[in-house]
Amino acid sequence: MNRKLLFWMMLSFANTRLISAWTSRQRKNAAGLLCLAASLRTTTSHCAPTIPEEWLEYDHYNGVTISLNQSMNDFATALQNSLQQWKHEGRKGIWLQIPEAHAAHVGSAVAAGFRFHLVQQNTLILSAWLPSFDDPTAISRLPAGPTHQVGVGCLVFHPDDSSKMLVVQEKTGPAAAWSLWKMPTGLTDAGEDIHAAAERELKEETGLTAACRGILQFRQAHPTQLKDNSKRVYRTHSDLFFVCVLQLLEKEIVLEACPDEIAAIQWMSVEDYCRQERWQSSPVYQEMNRVIQEAQLSHMMQPYTLELGFGRGTNALYHSRPPQSQL
Amino acid sequence: MNRKLLFWMMLSFANTRLISAWTSRQRKNAAGLLCLAASLRTTTSHCAPTIPEEWLEYDHYNGVTISLNQSMNDFATALQNSLQQWKHEGRKGIWLQIPEAHAAHVGSAVAAGFRFHLVQQNTLILSAWLPSFDDPTAISRLPAGPTHQVGVGCLVFHPDDSSKMLVVQEKTGPAAAWSLWKMPTGLTDAGEDIHAAAERELKEETGLTAACRGILQFRQAHPTQLKDNSKRVYRTHSDLFFVCVLQLLEKEIVLEACPDEIAAIQWMSVEDYCRQERWQSSPVYQEMNRVIQEAQLSHMMQPYTLELGFGRGTNALYHSRPPQSQL
């Protein structure tokens, strides 16, 4: 595996800028030569159109990113010329960012050899692995896009009776059809930490303010189920589901079901929750329920938010060691 | 949050098929009426083109998925007509799947009001939230695409001396520039469990066969670093990095560095590993290194692979309770 982690990419950004500045100068020289070569060939002084330099950014994996932020009449020709030039220079991975406003250019990009890669911030990112243009067996080393959605379940034991847990019935979806009592659940928002998502979801669905004390367990699921009986390809990504234990911060507990999503809300004995018929046929849920019944703080990975240090911002870290201050 | 988990979507698929069969009949009646209305208006017998019924699949969230698997001359008109009809029927989320072969239609789709949503299996998935066509404040309830890549680090203690761990130096990337000794790392492949990815990566980078005994800790990182100083939008997804502890299954240990990726490989004292200069400025890495130094099996979440039961396939489950058989 030569695809390296996003983390390293982020750290390496400072380096990239230096290399960009250098390669940018080299590129201008190369563009001049191409222009000269073209004018010699055609005996006119008109240069073959290429992608404008100010749309480009170079990376230290020998790649180029094109940001298509305005329309261009001869985009298809310019793209093909630039690809030829980059192949000649020995470049490898080319990224092309097309925002929705310029979606009409997507066809030309695919015709030039680009593949759909991912969508982010309403922008379609295409990629071309230049070595595979001449050698179809050359495998792209460009990192794949994101593969997982991340969900949370909120496990809240009653502060005065830990044999009871908070459960909801949903208004729509399969759990509603089964009248299943379940933990409040939801997906993390973009850029949101797991423990923060659990606190937000609990607040949204039940009105309760709580602090996430730890992750009790988590489940990874891949959607093999859709493959052979559906025309649909969307939502075929994997799912990580974290069971978070939260401690209420309210002095007085008032349950307020979210009117859009939650049909009913109550405290239920953990035993009754686990005995629900729906779980009985599922080894995964039986095991998850056993872990819930035996839950203790010492079994959990607690969340810590720490400065990255050699880059901006913080990371969330989850582990089950006591904090150093308590040792 | 009304966006529900992938898991529920997969479970609900059987229901969807039943509803599809029913709505499909209703739709044919509706299409007939539209055709009749069109013929009355235009006083010709030619029907307004709509998206062919056999390209459609209905879901029980009141949505429609269009699979564009062949080219269509009047696609732009047909799409607009179908959208009008679905709006009239009170439908909400419309998905449109465009494979690379039909990339030329992407422009028409965006012009008709579709947004880029995600890319999967080399297919661009666009979406349109019909309620927002008339009311721009209506917020889409369609689930976002995947948000995270999942990486693993392989922590292998020497079988005869647990004060030593296996480390590598990489050939390329920032860690190489810093001459950093690090755990073998990599990204999970599509559909691959975390513990399986750790075993595969270790094998690929070092030649060693091992079994993943547990997850010691994990880190969640969001790429705030790229936002304000780069034109690039790609790779702005989040990262989950799991530190996996592996136990060697080899009788005789022979270290074989992967020639493409690994420059050097050795056993190193955990203390020396943690003392490397690069970590000193990073609170995140200092804490991760402390947890590595104190690693014990009881601190880990062990992997279990279990049948889902009420659906096909297995899930991976991670928790730190002893298996039931050992209680």
UniProtKB/TrEMBL annotation, chains A, B:
- Pinpoint the Nudix hydrolase domain residues: 147-290
Q: Can you provide one Gene Ontology molecular function annotated for this UniProt record?
A: NADH pyrophosphatase activity
Say yes or no: keyword Hydrolase present.
yes
Which SUPFAM superfamilies does the annotation name?
Answer: Nudix
User: Pfam families this protein is in?
Assistant: NUDIX, Nudix_hydro
Renumbered to this chain, the signal peptide range is 1-21
Q: Which domain of life is it from?
A: Eukaryota
Checking InterPro entries in the record gives:
Nudix_hydrolase (IPR020476), NUDIX_hydrolase-like_dom_sf (IPR015797), Nudix_hydrolase6-like (IPR003293), NUDIX_hydrolase_CS (IPR020084), NUDIX_hydrolase_dom (IPR000086), Pre-Nudix (IPR040618)
Hydrolase keyword on record: yes
Alphabetic keyword roster: Hydrolase, Signal
Family indicated by similarity: Belongs to the Nudix hydrolase family.
| Protein's UniProt name | Nudix hydrolase domain-containing protein
User: What species is this protein from?
Assistant: Fistulifera solaris (Oleaginous diatom)
